[in-house]
From TrEMBL:
Pfam families: Acetyltransf_1 (PF00583). Gene3D superfamilies: 3.40.630.30. GO terms for molecular function: acyltransferase activity, transferring groups other than amino-acyl groups. Residues 5-163 form the N-acetyltransferase domain. This is N-acetyltransferase domain-containing protein.
Length: 163
């Protein structure tokens, strides 16, 4: 039995899974409880409008007895774009990263990152990749550093509006 990781574009049929993973990620990292209907609507909106977002899914593919390949979704990330007038190009922001606990520390995020990095390098006008990470998430920070990312020295401030 052989196992490989493959990254693919997400499809609308992935929306429910992606929404569940986004909810799990918010709970784990920020202790936030999100409204499932709102998150599902947000994921679906991103999936149908590339100007909003682009999602990728990591698949662990297992070949059984040398002939049948079975795929299991084992992680995701979402990309958004930010225009930089300083660089006259787009930053691609890596967001909504989630790898279920059973698949962590197995190269899933690295496969997703390498896929997105290759796409970014091949896309004219992309100046780099960015992401934000929880201040105390040292394990994730170590992973990002191992992939060649550096601390950009910014802090994020926000003001969320009530709906």
């Amino acid at each position: 039995m052989d196992s490989t990781l493959r990254v693919r574009d997400a499809h609308l049929r992935d929306a429910e899974m992606l929404a569940q993973w986004a909810i799990a990620m918010a709970r784990e990292t920020e202790h936030k409880h999100l409204d499932p209907a709102t998150v599902l609507a947000g994921v679906e909106a991103g999936l149908v409008d590339p100007a909003k977002a682009r999602y990728f899914v990591a698949m662990r593919e297992v070949t059984v007895a040398g002939r049948e390949t079975i795929g299991e979704a084992v992680g995701t990330l979402m990309l958004t774009r930010e225009w930089s007038d300083w660089r006259c190009g787009d930053w691609w922001w890596i967001q909504s990263v989630y790898v279920p606990e059973a698949h962590r520390r197995q190269g899933v995020f690295s496969a997703l990152y390498r896929h997105v990095e290759q796409l970014a390098r091949q896309t004219e006008g992309v100046v780099g990749l960015r992401l934000y990470v929880e201040r105390d998430n040292v394990r994730a920070q170590d992973t990002y550093a191992a992939l060649g990312m550096t601390d950009a020295g910014y802090r994020i401030f926000e003001r969320e509006f009530e709906r």
